[in-house]
Each structure stands twice: as C-alpha cells, then as structure tokens.
Amino acid sequence: MHHQLIKHREIHFCAIHSNPEQAHAAVFSVNDLPGVLMSHALSHQCIKIAYDLNRITLAEIESILQNEGFHLDNSILAKIKRSIVFYCEEASRENNKQERQIEEVHNKHKSDVVYLTTRKKKLCDCRDQRPESWRQYL
Predict the structure, then answer these.
(1) Taking the model in full, what pTM does it have?
(2) How far apart are CA 38 and CA 23, in angstroms?
C-alpha cells in the first residue's frame, strides 16, 4: 500500500536580488517538478508549496531552485528551519520505506510462515518418546 505524505511548506527568497519577483518566477519552475501538487506566490519573496514526500523532498526542490539562479533566504533562522525540515523528511521517507518493505515481506511469506510454524510444532511433538498422557505430569 502506497501512502501519500503530502507536505505544505513555504519557501522564502532573499530580498536582495536582481529580480524582485523571484517568487512569481519560481512558481512556474516548481509547478513542473514531479511530485509537486500545488504552488503559488504569497508575496514577492515567498511561495507556498504542496508536494508528495514520497516523490520529492524540500531539499531537492530548493536545490533545483538554487541551480536555476534563485536566491533563498539564508538568515540563521531560515537555515535552522531548513535543517530541521530536511532531517524530518528524510526520517519520514526512511520509515515509510521500511514499513513498505516489512509489509511486502510479510505478505510474500505469510503462507510460508504458517507452514513452518506447524511443521516445527509437529517436529517437537515427534521427538518426545513418551506417550501423550505422560507428558502432562513432568
């Protein structure tokens, strides 16, 4: 089962840039990315974005924007927020990936596990040479 992890974030841009309308230009770049569901400019220096975490992360989105020449807000508070979000998103992706792998293995080997447990039980009973009625007393 594939769970969608929809995240809603704001990306802030640096106020000092040759293009004062960075946010509006960034919306057009971000909308074409796979996994981005929605984006719109909140102001000249901020966009709001919604994306599927299974397909893309905020780190990837911001990296793409920086490679295209956009200047993100690099204040200390913005850097701290970014670091926390990057860490949380990577942890969520890893947890989700592990849950899917466990579920796949469980579904794949469900019948094998039942067979092995019954087979193991039969083997344990067969090794005891005493009659069934005597086994209760020891």
Answers:
(1) 0.68
(2) 14
Mean pLDDT of each 10-residue bin along the chain, 138 residues long: 78 84 89 92 92 92 92 92 93 82 70 54 60 68
Give CATH for domain 6-96: 3.30.70.100
DSSP symbols for the chain:
-----EEEEEEEB-SSSS-TTHHHHHHHHHHTSTTEEEEEEEETTEEEEEEETTT--HHHHHHHHHHTT--B---HHHHHHHHHHHHHHHHHHHHHHHHHHHHHHHHHHHHHHHHHHHHHHHHHHHH--S-HHHHTT-
Q: Where are the domains of the chain?
A: 6-96
